[in-house]
Amino acid sequence: MAPLPDAGGAPGLERLAVERHETPHPSEGATAALLPLAGRTIALLEARRAAELARLIAQQGGQPYLAPAHREVPVEDERALAAWLRTLADGGFDVVIFLTGVGCQALLEKAAQWGWLDAVRQGLARARVVARGPKPVRVLKTHGVRIDFVPPEPNTSDELLAELARWALRDRSVGLQLYGGPTPFLDRLCAGLAALGARVHAVAPYRWEGPADDRPVRQLIAACLAGQIDALLILSSSQIYNLFEIAAAYGQAEALQRALNDPRVLVAAVGPVAAQAVEACGVRVDLQPAHPKMGHLVAALGPALAARQERRAARP
């Protein structure tokens, strides 16, 4: 290989059924009113980093409204994980691609559990290692793994393939850690690798599922239909798909679509993958941050909501 560059029928808005985050505002009174998200209710479908995201919103003066819409569930049959890790440990991969931090961490934890971590690290040292974005980068660095390439922002399969097209991948063995479910970007990545002649060995250490209890999401849908939400943040494609799947199960999908397309509601997506999923559900995307990161998304909310309010106020 060439050398590499280094939630109908939903209950009302009872407090106990909805995880409405009550993080105190960093300041009170008149000062709090000056914060960018003061008086705004911001809906979140995030699960794993919900507390962190809620804290960021509260620091901006907003009221976080938590309704986790998805879970990352470890696969029950671990034989495929074992076979993939064994191949990696035996030096069977020329290139290894980690798409997510949670998937990368799950694989390395399994390697440690089965006593293979040192051998897996050695296999990674012999291969060329790709981390799709900052989350797998953090995991790999924690384990002392050298990283050969990280695609530039927005860290999608498109940027990844642009670089991989320069590599001599024909008949090379590529270990690919998958997302928890299908996405158009993953489809493009797999098709692109096949077109480059790579022999892809994929592994899925977890899968995306809806919430174990859908009542908070049903409560959120009721709040959206009642016009009680100022903004909805989408951090992954599975979040918006699960939201609409639950709405459809109760005959509310079309009503939810209309509610989210109301000009009084701002729908924000963290990056192009999430944005494409939102648009696939028939909902416009009002905001994408310049950098596809959670902190940048929250920071962009206040100015976007203020600009929208000014435009409405200027209309005759």
Structure description:
- The protein is α/β, with parallel strands linked by helices and 316 residues long.
- It folds into 2 domains: 160 residues, Rossmann fold (3-Layer(aba) Sandwich), CATH 3.40.50.10090; 136 residues, Rossmann fold.
- A 5-stranded mixed β-sheet has the order 1-3-2-10-11. A 4-stranded parallel β-sheet has the order 6-5-7-8, sandwiched between helices. It has a two-stranded antiparallel sheet with strand order 4-9.
- Helix 4 packs parallel to helix 6, helix 7 runs parallel beside helix 8 and helix 10 packs parallel to helix 12.
Topology:
Elements (H helix, E strand, L loop, with lengths): L18 E2 L8 H5 L7 E4 L5 H10 L3 E4 L4 E4 L4 H11 L5 E4 L2 H13 L3 H10 L1 E4 L2 H9 L14 H8 L8 E5 L6 H12 L3 E5 L2 E4 L5 H11 L5 E4 L2 H13 L3 H8 L5 E4 L2 H9 L13 H21 L2
Parallel strand pairs: 2-3, 2-10, 5-6, 5-7, 7-8, 10-11
Antiparallel strand pairs: 1-3, 4-9
